[in-house]
Each structure stands twice: as structure tokens, then as C-alpha cells.
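Memo to structure team: turn this sequence into C-alpha cells by end of day. - J.P.
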Amino acid sequence: MHHRRTQTTAGDPQLAPPGSASTRTRLATLVVTALLGSLVVLVAPAEPATASTLLMPVFVSQWGSTGSGDGMFNAPGGVAVSATGDVYVADTSNNRIQRFTSTGVFVGQWGSAGSGNGQFNLPNSVAVSATGDVYVADTFNDRIQRFTSTGVWASPRGPDTGYDA
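Reply from structure team:
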């Protein structure tokens, strides 16, 4: 049996059989794709979703360009959307995470190249928990780092305890 990976706006991945009620009700209303230095935002159709409407998202907007300034990207990798609608992007080759509103307005960024807490070596994935914590796959440092929604480094036990996640 094939399973489709779905992502809710809170960033909570779910696995559900294709066409099941669970898949239809847990589908993301916002789908964000990193594409060649910019973000493309697509909106899935409203409930009730059918197999044919799920394959036809609607283009809404895109933002960003290639570079290292605020709101610019260099090989953006992972994208996650929080329950509040904020969009987090793993800006892989710039070794940082960028945060935007759901309309693409730059809110902030954190990270730099390195191996210390809050530093990255080509982060390629980001996820947001239901409580708003941001988890980053720090690829070549072989670890997952956890941050508050505003980018403050936090260990699995709480902010700034010195524990290397």
C-alpha cells in the first residue's frame, strides 16, 4: 500500500493512506516550495478535497532572489510553516535560517557558518513543532538543533543550558 506524506501548517508530518478521510482533513492549506533561489507559495484547494483537486494547487506568490542579503537565498533547502503562519527557510549555502510572514515579508534570520550552538554547516531541513519550536537539520555538523520561534538556541532541556543537541 502506498502512503502519501502530508504536512500540516503546524509542521507536523503525518502519514495517511491516499484518499482516506485522514489525508483529506490533514492536508496543508499552505504548500511552500524552495525553487532556484526563491520561494513559490501554492494553496491546496478547500475542503472537501478530492484526488483530482489535490493535484491542482493554485499559484499564489513567490519571493526572494539569489544572494546573501535579508530575504535572499543561496540554495534554499527545507521550508516549514508554523501554526501562526510564519514561514521558516533553511537557507542552506548561506548557513542560516530565515523567517518570513505568510506573505513573504522578511521577519528575521539567525545562524552563521560554524560548529557551535546556533551555527550551521549547510542546514538542509527545518521543521516547526506545535509549540513553535524550530528544529534544524544541521547536515555536516551531524546534529539537530532546536530554537525558539525567534531564533534563540535551545537545548532539548530548555534555552541555553549548554547541552549540544
